[in-house]
Amino acid sequence: MMMHQGLGLETFNDLPRRKAVHALYECCCSHTWASRVADARPYRSHAELFARADAELGELSDADIDHLASTHRPVGRTCAGMDPATQSVFIDACRMYIERFGYGYIVCSAALPGGGDEPREVLIDVGHRLDNSHETERKVMRDELAKVNRTRIERVLGPEEGWPPY
């Protein structure tokens, strides 16, 4: 669970640097990334913040990306909605993925068709990605990390139009 949620962009921009870095670190687990994104404040819109977050993620070294990948929970253990047989197939696919690429399968399930609610969507995704070259999968994995970051940043900021008045 994230400590910083629904701050709003203006409040985020006004946070002391240390607190802004902490809020961003909760999104990405990279002090380098969080520091760079925090130091580029103030942001005029969510889109501007997302663009900067994506750009800074793109600048991280492969070693930094490997560290980020290692901080994500193994997906095979988090798909509780799957029936036991499907979960077994998925865990095997995740194991094959690790053996092939050297890091765990990362997906922003919210970005899958249907929002990742269907176990079949995740199985199809990992199956397709197992066919990728190492270079292609590295790019896909970075893209998935960016999507995860965006989802988490959205949680930190809350809705762009703000919360409705009570």
UniProtKB/TrEMBL annotation:
Keywords: Purine metabolism. It comes from the Bacteria. The keyword GTP-binding does not apply. It holds the Pfam family OHCU_decarbox. Residues 13-154 form the Oxo-4-hydroxy-4-carboxy-5-ureidoimidazoline decarboxylase domain. Signal peptide: none annotated. This is 2-oxo-4-hydroxy-4-carboxy-5-ureidoimidazoline decarboxylase. It comes from Rhodococcus sovatensis.
